[in-house]
Write a structure and sequence with these properties.
alpha+beta; 32% helix; DNA-binding; WRKY domain-containing protein; DNA-binding transcription factor activity
Length: 360
DNA sequence: GGGATTTGACCGCG
DNA sequence: CGCGGTCAAATCCC
C-alpha cells in the first residue's frame, strides 16, 4: 500500500471530512423531509455541516501548506507508514496521568493509549472494543495494584495481524482501564456490531453482544463513521466549550459528558477516531453507556504515540494547524493536525487492504 | 475436540 | 540485574 506521506494523509482526511459533509448534507435533507423535525434540529445539522465544511477548507489549506514544505519522503524505512511528525513532542504523553509507554519491542509500531471506563467497578471484563483479542499473557507491573493483561489479535497467526493491546486497570480508579494499543489491524476481521449487521457473529467474540449500530460492512468505513460521530459529538449544537475541562470529571462519578455517541460503538473505530481528534493531552471523550448498552463502558482517549522518537515535521506546525482549523470552524479542532499528520498510522488504512478502502 | 485462558519461564532492553 | 513483554505448556470452557 501506499506510504502515507503527510500530504496524502491530509488528503485522506479531507476526503473523510468531505464524505462526512456529504452525509450531513443528506441528513439535513432528511430533516427537511421530516415534518416532525424542528428548528433546532435544523440548526444543529446545519452547524455540523458548517463546521465540517470549514474543517475541510482548513485542512485543504493545511495540506497545501504542508505539501509545499518538505515533510514527506522521510518515512522510516522499516515501516510502511511513517511514524513521526506531530506526535513526537506534543502528543507524547499526558503528564498528569501515567504514561511510561516507552518500552522495548515493537518499536516501529504505532501506539496509542485509550482510557476505558466501565460503569461498574467490580466487573472484571475488559472493555470491549469490538475486535477479537486473544490473551497471551498477564503480568504484575511494578507499582500497579492490578496486573496488566496482554492481548493480541485473534487473527495474528491466521492473517499475521500485528495488532496487540495491553489492558491495565487503573489502580486509582477501579472503573478505569488504560488500554494501550500497538500496531494496526491488518486482518480482515469485522468489528462485532458490523459483523452482526452483515454476516454471522464476529469471530471469537466472547464479549458483549453487538449493538446494532451502523450497518456498513467495511471496517474502514466503520472507522470512518466512528470518526464522523466523534466529530459530530464535538461539533454538536452548543459544543463550543467542549475541551479541557472534561478532565475534571472524576471517572466513576463523572456526570455524563455533554455529548454522546448516538451510534458509534466504543470500538477501536471510536477510539481511533477519538485519538485522532483528541488534542494532545486535552480532549477527553466519554460516552454514557446507555447509548450502547451492550458495550462495557465508555472510553477516553488521552494519548497517541506513533513512534519511537520525536520527529520534526515540515509544513505547518501542529499547533498552528489546529489553530487554523479551530478558527476556520469556530470549533476546537486543534486535534485535527493530529489526524492529518498521523492518519496513516491509525488503523484506518490497512483494514480493507489497499484496493478497496473507502477513501479512494 | 478445538479454541481460549492461565501461568510460570524465558528473553531482551535499559 | 530488574522489569516488562512474550512464549508455550497446562488447563479450562463451550
Amino acid at each position: 500500500m501506499q506510504d502515507g506521506a503527510g500530504g496524502e494523509g491530509g488528503i485522506q482526511l479531507l476526503l473523510t471530512i468531505l464524505a462526512d459533509g456529504e452525509e450531513q448534507a443528506r441528513q439535513l435533507g432528511e430533516l427537511a423531509d421530516d415534518p416532525r423535525s424542528r428548528a433546532e434540529h435544523y440548526r444543529g445539522a446545519a452547524r455540523r455541516l458548517q463546521c465540517t465544511l470549514g474543517k475541510a477548507v482548513a485542512v485543504a489549506k493545511a495540506v497545501e501548506a504542508a505539501s509545499g514544505g518538505s515533510s514527506r519522503g522521510t518515512d522510516r524505512s522499516d515501516s510502511p507508514r511513517s511514524v513521526d511528525e506531530s506526535s513526537g513532542a506534543t502528543a507524547a504523553v499526558e503528564p498528569q496521568e501515567r504514561q511510561v509507554i516507552g518500552n522495548k519491542r515493537r518499536k516501529g509500531l504505532p501506539r496509542w493509549t485509550a482510557k476505558f471506563r466501565v460503569p461498574d467497578a467490580n466487573l472484571e471484563a475488559t472493555p470491549d472494543d469490538g475486535f477479537s483479542w486473544r490473551k497471551y499473557g498477564q503480568k504484575d507491573i511494578l507499582g500497579a495494584k492490578f496486573p496488566r493483561g496482554y492481548y493480541r489479535c485473534t487473527y495474528r497467526t491466521a492473517q499475521g495481524c500485528p495488532a496487540t493491546k495491553q489492558v491495565q486497570r487503573s489502580d486509582a480508579d477501579l472503573c478505569v482501564f488504560d488500554v494501550t494499543y500497538q500496531g494496526e489491524h491488518t486482518c480482515h476481521q469485522k468489528q462485532r456490531h458490523v459483523a452482526v449487521a452483515t454476516a454471522h457473529g464476529g469471530g471469537g467474540g466472547s464479549q458483549s453482544p453487538p449493538p446494532s449500530c451502523h450497518e456498513q460492512g467495511d471496517p474502514s468505513m466503520q472507522l470512518l463513521m466512528g470518526f464522523k460521530d466523534a466529530l459530530k459529538v464535538e461539533t454538536g449544537p452548543g459544543a463550543l466549550h467542549q475541551d479541557r475541562d472534561y478532565y475534571d470529571h472524576g471517572p466513576a462519578s463523572a456526570p455524563a459528558a455533554p455529548f454522546s455517541f448516538p451510534s458509534v460503538p466504543f470500538g477501536e473505530a471510536a477510539a481511533a477516531a477519538a485519538a485522532a481528534f483528541s488534542a494532545p493531552g486535552s480532549s477527553y471523550f466519554s460516552a454514557p453507556p446507555h447509548h450502547c448498552p451492550a458495550v462495557a463502558g465508555s472510553y477516553d482517549v488521552y494519548d497517541y504515540e506513533a513512534g519511537p522518537g520525536p520527529r520534526v515535521r515540515g509544513g505547518a506546525e501542529p499547533s498552528e494547524l489546529g489553530e487554523v482549523v479551530s478558527r476556520a470552524t469556530g470549533c476546537d479542532y486543534s486535534s485535527l493536525y493530529h489526524h492529518a499528520g498521523l492518519d496513516p498510522h491509525l488503523p484506518f488504512a490497512p483494514f480493507g487492504g489497499p484496493s478497496h478502502g473507502p477513501f479512494q
